[in-house]
Amino acid sequence: MECTLKYGENATIALQVPDERFLGEYGQPTGDPLDDVSAAMAAALVEPIDFPSVTAATVPGDRIAIPLDPGLPQAPALVAGLVQALCEARITPSDITVLWTKDESSGGGIDPRSGLDEKIAAEVQFVIHDPSDRNAMGYLTASAESQPIYLNRVLQDADVVLPIGCLRVKTATGYHGIHSVVFPTYSDNETLGRYQAPSNEESDVARGRRDKESDEAAWLLGVVATIQVIPGAGDSILHILVGNPQSVLAEGQRRCAAVWQYEVPQRAQLVIAGIEGDARNQTWDNVARAVTSALKAVDEGGVIAICSELAIPPGEAIQHLSAADDYEETLHAIRRQRSSDAVPASQLLKAMQQSRIFLLSGLDEAVVAELGLAPVADASEMIRLGSRFESCIVLANAQYAETTISA
After folding, report:
1. Residue 217 is assigned to a structural domain of this protein
2. pTM of this structure
3. What is the pLDDT of residue 17?
4. Euclidean distance between CA atoms 156 and 153, whole angstroms
């Protein structure tokens, strides 16, 4: 069986696995991606789900805030479609502010206004959120759990907030629902630390509390409509949903599950997983998501091989993986770190106790090996790896996919 696995922006691996050893290829979503994302956005705004036309819900003089999900695909095209519709509704471009984060996953320096007409782009405001800058933050109120809710002042000063989020399957690592694009993404370091605690991934109760806190913060802010995209393979988009948050959530989860949840007939000794997409997708968060998905399809003691173009050096928490021989001590050190990479570090640590993890990336092999991962030098080495095991599963777009074993 020959199988071509895409990873990174344009890289591919032509895997050759004997038919009797090949258990299947997953992670290739059905349905055609949107050809014209800006036009699709404009169309979705005209007929939202359980909500009036978004342009009819705004009036000239309104200050509009557009917070973007850090992992948003094709952000410039999405922003262009929304801003153009707002301008047609007589919103002044200078009254529109696009808000984005400064971390590695927010596009590698891409200006999300780059899809706009040059004159309009120059007028639309662009703010990069800094969670350490308390002066840029405003206190909204306390949550039901008496936690302070701080949000970027751009959101608090706006008359209308129109978030653009990236929908994932409900159980995706580090995902806290459709309102997480607002909170905690545009809150302060202390709040982010609370959400970045590994315990949120270890307990359904803790995860549910964080999800509820995000919903509460958005409600208190007055977010009455949301825009959510369902990602496709690589950097593509399959659907854009606009409207009432609860209605968008229900429809979005249904569509997301149909696209990204896969039943695997049995576990394999080897799972080869690809992370397709540009630099925005090549993050440690997505490596952890890919490993977590592959872990559900691999035999105990089997091998997970990740194909990526990851070039981001390991952060403070991930560096603790070098001491992974002592699981409890390493996990304690990661939890104590409370850094932005604590969740992926804890997920990788857990996976390393059950499987050996190989990593093809843009990192120096010595850096990968120091973490206790097995570096893969190039595509040819990955191909050889694929021929060494009695059973193999290939998982494309593993940062989005979720696997379960058939009953």
Report:
1. yes
2. 0.93
3. 85
4. 5
